[in-house]
Amino acid sequence: MANDQGTVSLKKPAILRFLNYNDASLKQFERSARYVFRDTASEAHLRYARFMTKDHPERSLELIERRWHGEVKGRLFKHIVCSFGDPMMSPKLGFDIMQEFALFFADYPFLFAIHTDIPRRIHAHALLGMTNLRVRVG
Q1: Chain centroid to CA 138: how far?
Q2: Within a domain: residue 14?
Q3: Which listed site, 11, 41, 53, 82, has its alpha carbon 20 to 30 Å from 89?
């Protein structure tokens, strides 16, 4: 984990979890996106979206699914939570780390927000769409 000076701290590890929902439908995506981008947890400048709009990401994901698969069904997304281990880390550094993390999924719809609603426990919530926009199957 990098701190504000860009050095790595081995004493304060981060935890990265990929969550699977039994129902990863468009309706669940909409609820999850509202949670990720809620005003009480995250400021607007700490929110990121790729291949989706920030104001209605569920509409963007629906259009992607219809365009690439002809319908909206199956597991549409995964919910990712990153708990940064450094209680003194700045929200800006958390945002920078998550932007770099998002590059690993450059061909997929991706959104995240840095949550600052828990003092000294900055964390990120992200939603990763399951459709690769570079490789079309079928």
Answers
A1: 27
A2: no
A3: 53
Distance between CA atoms of residues 61 and 46, nearest Å: 21
Angle, alpha carbons 102-91-39 (nearest 5°): 90
Segments in 37-86 forming alpha helices (H): 57-69
Number of domains in the chain: 1
Please list the alpha-helical segments (H only) found in 24-123: 26-36, 57-69, 91-102
Does residue 12 fall inside a structural domain? no
Entry pTM? 0.86
| Structural domain span for residue 91 | 25-129
CATH of the domain at 79: 3.30.930.30
Instruction: Sort strands 47-50 and 123-129 into parallel, antiparallel or unpaired.
Output: unpaired
| Angle at the Cα of 12 from the Cα atoms of 10 and 14, rounded to 5 degrees | 100
Residue 10 lies in a domain: no
Residue 137 maps to a domain: no
**pLDDT recorded at residue 5:** 53
